[in-house]
């Protein structure tokens, strides 16, 4: 089936909710989106679903709440390179990564997967509630470029772990050769969730139930959004508008930058391909790039995304977006709480950088979120004391170095 044969449709509740036994769109937190979840939060045993994935048993996650946007055209990779944070002008066919779209002030508007599964084709994986805005932006940016932006009627099914009949070539790969288990798949991409391999299969929406049944018959166990969220939180990957606010800049989410350290930004190398993280520091100008360069070269982000461990003894959970306080002073905001099979209730939160440093030094008052005691995960208590390259250059000019 070619992309031109497909037509997109508006977000709706997944047909798998009524198709799979035990499916429930409720997770007991009361913190779901206003219109309700589009996919099952669990299939009867959310903590067991996560534990089974950790034990190596393969699972399948309903990705009906994601949309595929397809850019077609010989110059598509060079065209889109001009206004996103990833470097795609030298992206090789068969690869996959992620990217951001920033506003003029460097604030994050979109987070999406981007893959090159075939020559002349780019596949964008975007949250359903943000797909209209991204498609509208891309369409308006076409001008004279020989590209098209389409929304094919595809649904995403994610295989977590290793499943016979579904190849797992490692993260950052993509293609159009359908696996034997699901011959209807139009595209596939690979990534990781926690330490687990994930293969995202894009299948026709009207055939999603048949594809799901085929994966289950091959040994994949139904896995709900709660278990998938627990894995996502381990990677410190936020949901925009849920775990973040409208002021978010890339450097506040370490996962967006990867392991770049304190290196300076530099001019683009035409032959250099994309990075595994969403922000490529060495590329030409794009909207919001000035903020990225300024923070990387001269300063520190005002906040940082961290994992909070929450007190589960009160039988209450913080509301999404609730203030985080320390000594009665607001120091951040919390995202959606997730029940982790190992750690209990946890959530991503944006917390002032100085407060994180004070927590690391043992000088901060106790943290609370909506009246619930909270603690920053020890893995996130990192203090960056490095001298930024731009600041070091200024100091040398002033004779301070």
Automatic annotation (TrEMBL):
Signal peptide: none annotated. Keywords: Transit peptide. It comes from the Bacteria. Coiled coil: none annotated. SUPFAM superfamilies: Folate-binding domain (SSF103025). GO terms for biological process: iron-sulfur cluster assembly. This is Folate-binding protein YgfZ.
């Amino acid at each position: 089936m070619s992309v031109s044969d497909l037509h997109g449709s508006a977000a709706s509740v997944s047909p798998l909710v009524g198709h799979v036994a035990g499916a429930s769109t409720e997770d007991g937190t009361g913190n779901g989106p206003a219109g309700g979840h589009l996919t099952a939060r669990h299939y009867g045993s959310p903590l067991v679903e996560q534990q089974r994935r950790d034990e190596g048993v393969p699972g399948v996650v309903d990705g009906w709440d994601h949309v595929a946007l397809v850019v077609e055209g010989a110059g598509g990779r060079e065209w889109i390179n001009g206004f996103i944070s990833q470097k795609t002008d030298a992206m090789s066919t068969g690869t996959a990564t992620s990217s951001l779209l920033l506003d003029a002030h460097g604030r994050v508007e979109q987070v999406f997967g981007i893959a090159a599964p075939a020559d002349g084709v780019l596949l964008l994986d975007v949250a359903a509630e943000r797909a209209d805005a991204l498609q509208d932006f891309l369409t308006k940016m076409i001008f004279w470029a020989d590209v098209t932006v389409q929304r094919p009627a595809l649904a995403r099914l994610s295989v977590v772990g290793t499943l016979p009949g579904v190849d797992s070539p490692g993260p950052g790969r993509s293609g159009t050769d359908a696996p034997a288990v699901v011959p209807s798949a139009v595209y596939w991409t690979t990534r990781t969730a926690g330490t687990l391999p994930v293969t995202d299969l894009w299948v026709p929406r009207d055939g999603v139930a048949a594809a799901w049944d085929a994966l289950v018959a091959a040994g994949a166990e139904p896995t709900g959004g709660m278990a998938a969220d627990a894995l996502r939180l381990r990677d410190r990957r936020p949901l925009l508008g849920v775990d973040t606010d409208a002021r978010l800049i890339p450097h506040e989410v370490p996962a967006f930058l990867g392991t770049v350290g304190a290196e300076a930004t530099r001019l683009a190398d035409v032959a250099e391909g994309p990075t595994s993280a969403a922000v490529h520091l060495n590329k030409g100008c794009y909207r919001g790039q000035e903020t990225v360069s300024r923070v990387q070269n001269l300063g520190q982000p005002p906040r940082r995304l961290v994992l909070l461990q929450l007190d589960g003894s009160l039988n209450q959970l913080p509301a999404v977006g609730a203030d985080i306080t320390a000594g009665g002073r607001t120091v951040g905001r919390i995202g959606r709480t997730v029940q982790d099979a190992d750690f209990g209730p946890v959530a991503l939160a944006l917390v002032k950088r100085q407060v994180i440093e004070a927590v690391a030094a043992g000088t901060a008052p106790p943290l609370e979120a909506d009246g619930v005691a909270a603690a920053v995960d020890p893995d996130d208590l990192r203090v960056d004391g490095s001298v930024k390259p731009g600041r070091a250059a200024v100091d040398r000019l002033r004779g301070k170095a």
